Please model this.
Amino acid sequence: MKSLWNESEAAQYPGELGQRVYTSRLLGRDASLVLHGGGNTSVKLREKNIFGEDEDILYVKGSGWDLETIEAAGFSPCRLNHLLKLAKLGELTDLQMANELKGCLTNSAAPMPSVEAILHAILPGKFVDHTHADALISITNTATGLSRVQEVFGDRVVVIPYVMPGFKLARLCAELFPKNAGPRTVGLVLMNHGLFTFGDSAKVAYELMIELVTLAESYLAKHKAWELPSPAMVPAPRAARTEIAALRKDISAAMGVPAILAVQGSATGHAFARRSDVGVISQQGPATPDHVIRTKRIPMLGRDVAAFRAAYEAYFAACAAKAGRKLTMLDPAPRVLLDPELGLCTIGRTAKEAAISADIYHHTIDIITRATALGGWRALPAEDIFDVEYWDLEQAKLSASGKPPVFAGEIALVTGAASGIGKACVESLLKRGAAVVGLDVNPAITKLHCRPDFHGIVCDLTQEAGVTAAIEEAVRKFGGLDMLVLNAGIFPPGASIADMKAELWHKVMTINLDANFLLLRECHALLKLAPNGGRVVVIGSKNVPAPGPGAAAYSASKAAVNQLVRVAALEWGKDRIRLNSLHPNMVFDTALWTPEILASRAKHYGLTVEEYKTNNVLKTAVSSRDVAELAAEMCGPLFAKTTASQVPVDGGNDRVI
Ligand code: ZN
Model:
């Protein structure tokens, strides 16, 4: 492992807090050191308080911040003396500790300090760095981990046996560290958890971390447990998309809410899921306490959700009885799944959660593989995992997290999503918490949003093979389909029937009608498996109730789709799928309407552009966003009892009224 310290980069971070920010980010850049909010850092500074007195302040990473992107505001200023006094208390519950941590801040607007704040306070050195380095965990999580750690680091670290993070751990370190530290001590190893280093400058503490982790890596290499096998290419999952969607439905039922199921398709995940010993090495527990919540106790092997659920319920009952506390069981749904065909899959309430679990589990695979090569992987005992899972602080966090967005855990597919109404629909659905797959023939679709809950696929809707491949990809990405927004369509240049070429007629029908038939047919089985029932919204047109001369092909295609959807509503009601149409008119903020076209059309009617835009009963302009918001609402609870409706969104049209 190389130090990333760079003098000119470091110079851009002035002051000691600035240096603290800089090396925290260096740690955060390496996913084998810290992942997704894991790890924490601190600096002890002397400051004048409001009375003009000198006071020692511990700036420690606040919760909700990631080391990779942390800023000065992400460090919570705690009164150091207060923390040192807390460390001397014989007893303190974790909820009391959380209260004290919040109470000793000098800035009431600062984030909640890390639960490891007291540990940072008692360690010597102005700068303290803490990681959950993969290489260290690969060594500690073995049968002879303790003696191996002593062999690797000698008297350079103090080793603390595993205790759950929180007050008890801080208390134990406060007791053992001064007793066992010597003149060569530069760090602290927490068994099955991580590593601390400290120093008088940010650079020293950081480079000691790199040095100690490198020692761990070299030890693994010496024991032929460092190089990971390079797995073979992943074969495409053989499971049909409906099998994946059915699995997601079962998992959602166990979770009690719709869930995202992401088939990772990684070679590493696949190879691990197919190991002959996967039933042993994957079923012992997570690598570190901070992985417990994200990956759950153990991954689910195969696809039998009922069996996993029963095993979890039995585990909870046994542990809860032993703990002698009254506890409410968390949902018995897995967060990680290993299947010989599907490989590694991760589950989350949102696409982001599933992505985080995937990152963590990929590291877990590396750790388990190395520990196994070193002589046998050993996770935390089940009771310790249970303690973390049912930790007061985690429970408090869960009950504090607000109401989830209306479409959390649900998946929407939008056609023609790169621009105009389709693009606006993507935004309205994302805003409501859905994971969205956007299809468009325009390659810009792949870059429309860079976030874990959006996936853009380039797709020509007139090519059947391309459409089915895109649906397949959407299901592997998020696990199924709950909402379908049929938006893609073309509006050809005006042509009277007498002059219209058959070619134009067919082109319009192919895109506006045939493609929608194909999408409906191919998505039906998936929508039927939607945990909360499937929903389809069709972006129709004012031309359905009020066609215009010169637009025969367009009007006929839209009217045909309208009729198709009415039949689908009759056929699919028994499958809990509802379909509704909206009929927009004169939506001018789309690629179709350039300022030139707008000006010429306005002129044609003897109106100003503004008059033309608001030429409706309500004298109001209709935007893509107006249409998209209605489309999203049609998928929501407001329209739960409505199917086959047709709602105009046109400012009121006297020909329709
Ligand atoms: Zn930690």
The longest helix spans residues 502-528. Residues 252 and 258 are 5 Å apart (CA to CA).
